[in-house]
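Key idea: predict the complex, not the pieces.
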Amino acid sequence: MVYAGELPLRVALAVSILILLLLIVYPIVLLITLGSAQLASALSVGSFIDAIEVTVIMSTLSALVAIVMGTPLAYLLARYEFRFKQILDSIIDIPIMVPHIIVGIMIVLAFASRYNIIFNTLNLVAHKLMLIDAALSRYGLLHALLSPVVNALVNLLTGITGIRFVNTLWGAVAAVAFLSSTYYIRVVEAAISMVNPEMEIVARTLGASPSRVFVSITLPKVWKAMANGALLSWARSVSEAGALFIVAYSIYFNGNYIYPASVYIYESYVGVGLANAVKYSAALLIIVLIIFVAYRVALGIKRGG
Amino acid sequence: MDAVRLINIELSLGSFKLGPLSTSMANRTYNVIMGPTGSGKSTLLKVIAGAYRPNSGSVIVDGVDVTNKPPELRGIAYVPQGYALFDHMTVYGNIEYGLKVRGMPKSIRAREVYRIAEDLGIVNLLNRKVNGLSGGESQKVALARALIVRPRVLLLDEPMSMMDVSTRESLIPTLREIPRKYDTVVIHVTHDRDEAYALADKVTIINNGRLIEEGEPEEVFTRPKRLFTAQFVGFTNIIPAKAVKTQGGSTVHVGDLTLHSSEGIEGSVYVCIRPEWFNVTNEGGLNVIEGTVLDVERGRMGYRVKVSAGGVTFNAVVQSKLSSGDVVKLSIPPDMVHLIPAY
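Result:
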């Protein structure tokens, strides 16, 4: 135990604060100081506003994916011991370890290449259904009855396999959701494990169904952590560049190809130069910080959720 | 008919195995399940509550097999250790919860909450947050929350463990009257023998997941049938001996001493005597042990002394202050020399 104010602690703290200032505070302050003067100019550029818009939409959809996928998983991990828990745990951590460019490659491989097993299978099923439909045409009444159903199924399947992932919002959301859901799951898992499971048992014995218990007992105690986790995962998506370079360097949205914000800034840096990139970087940073702060204030999230 | 019947309950949790265990509890009775830490008593309670499904066996409540029913359909209320009060609600919200999830109208809920709060003397707490409550107050809130749904069975897991001694003693009458007042059966888990003795109509001793012995507290606490029970309920004198049956009891050879017991048993036995059953005497006669004081310790009930006599060390609780080296005579009536056959 080191007492506050003792020499070793003071030295260690001095070093740590120096690094903090140098590595984190100094670049942020410099960027915002230089860039804030040009905030209005940055925000008057239509293509940049489009970039922010598409980035916010992409990140919000990705946060929703994280909530839907992550909440049950977080509950499972927090509450139960089961076989293969270690494996599930590791799978959830994989996105943190994989280089983001590789994530982009994986998404393209899985959903936008000839190796896309899922779409290939669905296409095969659709093809078989069409053959069945053709074969049925000999049986008048049966065909009349079944054909609409078969056709609807075929339309559904071809609709799904028609989804394009490269340079679309689908692909962009898939890539950033892959990378950001882990943050949500870990935050929510920690929060759920802090809720006394006995409360849930008591609520059940008092007559509440499992879903009622979740809504009335667990959720009131973890919703702030869920909101906090969703925000973290959202912010992680906003900042993504690597995977988007591969999957969605530009996103086809509202009839135009729009760069995600991070790609936009990269383009402005390599295409025009540092001063230009600083302008947009500062603007994006300020906007993200404003959203971050406003969201936290609105939810009343205190330190640690 | 028994309100609760457990038939051959078995449950494996990791390396711990509960059961096979069978017992039953009558309506309007206070049942205490007693066992050391890790004996499986809380697990058993959770099996009854429905938090754990047993690997085999049945839980019967009022003649209905509830083994495969979820907790909300069992008619069982549960007060866990530490109470698990819903700390995001007020006391009122906690007590109201069971009626609210049953869809009861607000006006009826309010009436019921006030009624039970009045019963337990906690009306003044209703608007409080649960976080600032004392141990005794928390327990009453947890009891009110459980009793308001009129459960067929009330499960209490170590309900007094978070309380100081005086609060504990003041709450005994409240708990004691629950089975009859609320027409239910209470199953209370504890490792505290004073608590069990004060409350129970029936005591069940469990250890390593198995039922060791059960019966009325007077029986279990003074005439235990099993060695484990004797150790657990406070017999500090458990001495191997040989007994010879006589008319009206038996003669027991303990070390170099001979004691008389009113229990007629023949063969190898354990002589079991509670330390407080010894009396210091000046006279000689039947069952008087003369020995040397080895050690004296001050205790709540008197002085705990170790007395060596006839090659045996006895533990006694006496009221007179003795010192090491003193010679003392201890007498024990024959009907208080309890014998457990050694198998």
